[in-house]
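Recall the central idea of this unit: under ordinary conditions, the amino acid sequence of a chain determines the structure it adopts. In this exercise we apply that idea directly, starting from the sequence alone.
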Amino acid sequence: MKHHLSSLIIALLSAFTLTACVDDSEYADSPEGNFDALWRIIDEHYCYFTYKQQQYGLDWNEIYSKYRVRVSPDLTPDNLFEILSDMLGELRDGHVNLTSSSDVARYWSWHEDFPANYSDTLQRRYLGTDYKIAAGIKYRILDDNVGYIRYSSFNAGVGEGNLDAVLMELMFCRGLIIDIRDNGGGYLSYAEKLAARFFTEPTLVGYICHKTGKGHDDFSAREEQWISPSAHVRWHKPVCVLTNRSVYSAANEFVKYMSVLPLVTIVGDRTGGGGGMPMSSQLPNGWIVRYSAVPSYDSQGNDIEFGISPDVPAALQPDDISRGYDTIIETARRILRK
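Accordingly, the structure predicted from this sequence is:
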């Protein structure tokens, strides 16, 4: 079944919201009750158990035994929060958070354990001081007639008029660099809106499915994700998309969309991943847990939860940094000059 991406995502999220509730009345507002409620919420609604069991041997029942023995009636809220946070960390998922009134538990090893491959100082050198700004996008023409776009977060909105203005300004460039390094995601609609400027026909970009029951493998059939060309100004020349480990969630999806196009080259480091769309539930004590609930796959059906590999690997090199050059940008420029 063919679906336009935005309408499919909205429909799936709406449907899942109706089934993602957990009956808090089954659990007391006690350390034991909150622990059991959290474990069950994840057990019934998290979408990557089978994949992560294959990747690193995750066993959610063993995780229960490992952490449940640490829970006792006299635990302070801070002690309980630490135990629950440690348990959620076993999922190795940047979309998983536990939020109390005083803290947010998070898993950031998906980028903290890897080289940054991005420098604000170097990036400012390439933009200079006379770059242009169109909503959430900064852009300019580099001195070799390559267009450069910096989109640092898909939380920053961009309109069709903004994208028209940017592409018209860069239309005579030989190629285009889209730098989304350190883009941790945001709104999928902005990622799709930008990607649609590079498509010439409706194109399959991936698949999505959603939970249909409480079992770890209770999912709907995979449904196709398609992107259609924008009705506005489009780009038909080569593009390099720059990535690093801090490209996550909606930015990871953007790389997924762009990677199917023949004139697009992904340059840099593997993305951080974040292939699941998150949902939230509440514990008896009011703490909020967020978790990946709707898995997404690339156009070949591969899981993208742990990231997407670049077409051309590149990393910042000390010698280049000392001379004021960004190795990843320079690699993209060489590709576009060819």
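The first helix runs from residue 5 to 19.
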